[in-house]
Amino acid sequence: MKVVTWNVNGIRARELQVVEWLERERPDVLCLQELKAAPEQLPLSLVAPEGYQTYWHGHKGYSGVGLLLRRETFAGDVAFTHPDFDHETRVVEAHLPDFTVASLYVPNGGKDFAAKLAFLEALERRAAAARAEGRKLLLCGDLNVALTDRDVHPKERKAGAIGQRSDERALVEKILAQGLVDTGRALDQENDSLFTWWAPWRQLKERNIGWRLDYVLASETLASKAVAARVYREFGTSDHGPVLVEFG
Question: Cα separation of 231 and 243, whole Å?
Fold first, then answer.
């Protein structure tokens, strides 16, 4: 099973790249963030791509998430829902027979840091409830937090910067403590250049001077089947690269 999360930074600007990705990689699960488009604004090629069930959750010019599920892998109609802490079209969940998958776009926090912390706190409660129910989770998306200093290039590290603050990191650690595994890091433990986002100036992307903000968090039983992970820095023109995790 191929699971991909990708902040596209505008679905209309990245239409052909998303189509190419679907055709080339045929992911079983594709979670997209920062659509910056309402469902009625979607390019026709992505409204219902062949072979996929899709759910688009967004509004004009800001935020938004999408979730695409390959029909060959997940037969039948899927129930898509939103948790009560969803605001600004930032979360969509799909309830599958073996697990629940969510596409997540955590607020950046630059304009309303309290809202970011509240979102992460609610996500931790969601993960705790799922664990108590024995329900496996796959949480995929842009968490807008670099978990450790190692997840930020040395040239980009700055004590107290949003995305690197200890209170944000502590909340992500609490989420992980609910029986979840950071699969990208677990499969690439020795990589000190594992980044998923690069500021769009000074050729930082080309030089791989970035931050790791995009994650695939999996319940331990799912994570035990993860066999490979990769960030596709060179693919596409978003300031984020697609993150792919393969499960055996």
Answer: 5
Instruction: Give the pTM.
Output: 0.97
Instruction: Read off the pLDDT of residues 213-248 as tens digits, 9 standing for 90 and up.
Output: 999 999 999 999 999 999 999 999 999 999 999 999
**Cα separation, 5 vs 229, whole angstroms:** 11
142 counts as catalytic: yes
Q: Which of the residues 77, 98, 112, 142 is marked catalytic?
A: 142
How buried is residue 43: exposed, middle or buried, by Cβ count under 10 Å (0-12/13-18/19+)?
Answer: middle
Q: Enumerate the β-bridge partners of residue 185.
A: none
pLDDT tens digits, one per residue of 63-76: 999 999 999 999 98
Domain boundaries along the sequence of the chain: 2-247
Q: Which CATH class for the 2-247 domain? A: alpha beta
Q: What is the pLDDT of residue 19?
A: 97
The reported pLDDT for the residue numbered 96 is 96
Chain Cα centroid distance, residue 237: 17
Would you state the pLDDT for residue 86? 96
CA 8 to chain centre: 10
Closest residue by Cα to residue 58 from 75, 74, 82, 76: 82
User: What amino acid is encoded at 170 in this protein?
Assistant: A
Which tokens is 236 given? 């596409």
Vertex 99 angle, CA 96 and 103, to 5°: 80
